[in-house]
Amino acid sequence: MRIALYPGSFDPVTFGHLDIIERSAKIFDRLFVGVLVNSVKTPLFSMEERVRMISVLIKGLKNVEVRSFSGLTVDYARSLGATVIVRGLRAVTDFEYELQLSQTNKVMAADIDTVFLTTNLKYSYLSSSTVKEIASYGGDIRPFVPENVIREIHRKLGTDFIAE
Ligand code: ADP
């Protein structure tokens, strides 16, 4: 059984993340989406909120579970029995950071490999921070995040939800 861990901040989850989740779920027998608690970035959403938003969206994916974690990703992967860490690659700007991260993880845990999925072209420009910035200026974020996430963002920012 191939178990994979897709770790990240998911602050909040976007269509780009969801695309990686759906594609990974087809490749691996079991996929854990790991929401990182001790990120250096100060998140907009609490760990519980980030987990809840993802859990609504993965309901139809029977082999996918969302959990939160803190500490080293490789330690958490081991505790789940995962031998693969999944990461998404958008542009070259992601590459240097992701390469360094995966090589560092490989030194710490030789039994775990990082697998990169290149982003769906539709979402190659998309990041959680862009979505938050657009929402804060009252922009329409429907092309970027699902409806449950739109509602949560507007609730958090105290801005209006743009309905159809
Ligand atoms: P982190 O803070 O760990 O980078 P993120 O939540 O920003 O966490 O991203 C988690 C993973 O998803 C990273 O591998 C990132 O490159 C990837 N990712 C983020 N946005 C997209 C996207 N639009 N398309 C594909 N992968 C993405």
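^ adenosine-5'-diphosphate complex. Helices lie at 15-27, 47-57, 73-80, 92-108, 128-136, 147-157. Residues 92-108 form the longest helix (17 residues).
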